[in-house]
Amino acid sequence: MQAGVSWYYVCLHLAKVYEGMMIAVPAKHWDIFRRLDVDEFASVLRGLAARIDLRRFRKHPRGPKKPRPKQLSGAKVHHVATSRILAEKSP
């Protein structure tokens, strides 16, 4: 499932949620996380991550690639040599 996940959308969503939580949730409610040791904190994060529905963050399918523009052939593009112009101008 991770192959079809747009990490851009995941990060954008997390940034918006974090910003909203910092406004809506008082600082005293975050103190519990400061008291957790590393293993407890990792367990909480794994529990939260398990609830995420990754289908909400799917990549958009790409459309067909545009064709390359046709290049002009060398016969249509004339090279102007400076030496030839100077030779034609000199007596």
Element layout with pairings:
Blueprint: H1 7-24, H2 31-34, H3 38-50, H4 82-89
Could you please describe the fold and organization of this structure?
By secondary structure, the chain is mainly α. The protein has a domain at 2-57. Helix content is 47%, strand content 0%. The protein contains 4 helices and no strands. The chain has helices at residues 7-24, 31-34, 38-50, 82-89.
Unreliable parts: none
Q: Strand count, sense and closure of the main sheet?
A: none
Shape: elongated
**How much is the average pLDDT?**
84
Number of helices: 4
Class derived from helix and strand content: mainly alpha
Strand coverage percent = under 5%
Determine Rg (CA atoms, Å).
Answer: 31 Å
Distance between the termini: 77 Å
Task: Indicate the percent of residues in helices.
Answer: 40-55%
Number of strands: 0
SSE pattern, N- to C-terminal = HHHH
